[in-house]
């Protein structure tokens, strides 16, 4: 039996605060504050993708 990718969440690094977050619900700790790592931040990227997906109406597949 194959396991789904999301069965075992990964830890995503926050370069600004040297902490890790669960990949199931990534959220920037301080989205209003300046962060020099934001352009390469996995947490920020995943959060942006999730927000975009939530804004779009459901499309048939």
Strand order of the largest sheet: 1-2
Cα gyration radius (Å): 14 Å
Structural class: alpha+beta
Largest sheet: 2 strands, antiparallel
Mean pLDDT comes to 83
Strand residues, percent: 5-15%
Give the count of helical stretches: 1
N to C succession of SSEs: EEH
Report the principal-axis shape: flat
Description of the molecule:
The protein is of the alpha+beta class and 61 residues long. It has a domain at 10-48. It is built from one helix and two strands. A two-stranded antiparallel sheet has the order 1-2. Strand 1 and strand 2 form a beta hairpin. The two termini are 26 Å apart. The relative contact order is 0.17.
Tags for this entry?
about 60 residues, alpha+beta, two-stranded antiparallel sheet, 2 strands, about 15% strand, flat
Question: What's the topology here?
Answer:
Layout: E1 11-14, E2 19-22, H1 42-55
Antiparallel strand pairs: 1-2
Concise overview:
By secondary structure, this protein is of the alpha+beta class. It is built from one helix and two strands, in the order ββα. It has a domain at 10-48.
């Amino acid at each position: 039996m194959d396991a789904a990718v999301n069965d075992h969440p990964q830890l995503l690094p926050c370069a600004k605060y040297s902490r890790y977050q669960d990949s199931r619900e990534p959220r920037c700790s301080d989205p209003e504050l300046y962060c020099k790592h934001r352009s390469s931040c996995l947490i920020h990227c995943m959060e942006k993708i999730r927000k975009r997906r939530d804004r779009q109406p459901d499309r048939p597949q």
